[in-house]
Amino acid sequence: MGTRRNAQESVPAGGRLVSRTRRLDDAPLSALVRAAERPHAIWTAPNEPAVLARGAAAFVTASGTDRFASVREQAATVFSSIDRPDAAPHVARPRFVGGFSFHDRHDATGVWDGFPGAGFVLPHVQFTVTDDATYLTVNEYGADATPASVERTLDKVAAAARDTTHGDLAAPPGVRRTERTTDRETWRDQVEQVVERIESGTLEKAVLAQSLRAELDGAFSLPDAFDRLADAYPDCFRFAFRANGGRTFFGATPERLVTRHGGRLETGALASTAPRGDTPAEDDALEADLRNSEKYQHEHQLVADSIRDQLDGHARNVATGDQQVRKLTNVQHLFTPISADTDDHVLALADALHPTPAVGGLPPAAALDAIREIETFDRGWYAAPVGWFDADGDGTFAVALRSAVADDGAATLFAGNGIVADSDPDTEWEEVLLKYRPILDALE
Ligand SMILES: C=C(O[C@@H]1C=C(C(=O)O)C=C[C@H]1O)C(=O)O
């Protein structure tokens, strides 16, 4: 993402962070995204402000098993020098936005060229969009950052934002041709391999995924794709991150990894999937099957129990809410909300929780081995944490599902499903295909 800096030169020492905020007249996110041309990052989540990042005041990268802690340390260096008026609106405070790779060992090559093991941008120009207002925050970091230069940028960007008009939603680019990393036969074989490992007692559950390359008829437009996802998946976390070479990783995921706000954390288990019905009666019947199925309940319970275990040492007073069914446009899932008290930084919580067995499996190490050995594509940032954090350690991370990485002419989509002892390869295949729908519908 963002700049060409590597880990060693991520954050120059001895800088200071100057941050100033101004409230703008009505400027909706969609119009700002259209005007931004090449935003570094876009983040929207249910019940929290949206963040749009243009340019980088600082960019931190990291790799390997320590990448969560490394990002936190580098960001702390930047935040420690902050010059920002006490009266500045808290909602528009500077936030790092970015994400992680799924695996500890990650190669930023192929479609993932430009996406490091961890990459977070502190926006130079940061728009924070709430239900009531849009704020413009300008951040500058360096030995020569001054309030005067920040104010000049504020003037310029605020004037340009006043002239921002909404612009029209164009027709989607259209998909000319699709190509799978995994054909149906290979998928059957992969599911059987997982089931064999489960039967031999080394594994309880593993999530198998695949990818789909879609060649586009027209040019990919992030603002259009983003607007379409907003219409179809209003309750999801929508995100987009742009890498150096010009590729964009984007999606609309229903899965919160964790939110930390003050001393409270919110997470949950989202696992087990059924299609939506064509009629209300059919939909109710599918929901009843999901709720009453021993297989789906087992698969779901493994995730909920594991999340509580993963929070051990990071949270107190862990409370589990009643199981619900989350209905999305394409599928329905079992969902169990979990909340707790915590003193940890959101990055420490994301580190502890990633990957939950909703996208990895159990036991965790055996599941990750199975995924690495059996899957025939590179997960990159798919199914990994994406989100934001601030100077206080508050933030939100979502699990980057229902996602794709796109350049001008093609998009690679990702989708997977949990495999347990009694999984049927053909049923799993159909469920996986449904998970491509959000992105395919935004492109076709
Ligand atoms: C792996 C994906 O989804 C995950 C797997 C699910 C399942 O196994 O039923 C359900 C929701 C997600 O936790 C995906 O969307 O690619």
TrEMBL record:
<protein>
    <recommendedName>
        <fullName>isochorismate synthase</fullName>
        <ecNumber>5.4.4.2</ecNumber>
    </recommendedName>
</protein>
<keyword id="KW-0413">Isomerase</keyword>
<dbReference type="InterPro" id="IPR004561">
    <property type="entry name" value="IsoChor_synthase"/>
</dbReference>
<comment type="similarity">
    <text>Belongs to the isochorismate synthase family.</text>
</comment>
<dbReference type="GO" id="GO:0008909">
    <property type="term" value="F:isochorismate synthase activity"/>
</dbReference>
<feature type="domain" description="Chorismate-utilising enzyme C-terminal">
    <location>
        <begin position="184"/>
        <end position="435"/>
    </location>
</feature>
<dbReference type="Pfam" id="PF00425">
    <property type="entry name" value="Chorismate_bind"/>
</dbReference>
<dbReference type="InterPro" id="IPR015890">
    <property type="entry name" value="Chorismate_C"/>
</dbReference>
<dbReference type="InterPro" id="IPR005801">
    <property type="entry name" value="ADC_synthase"/>
</dbReference>
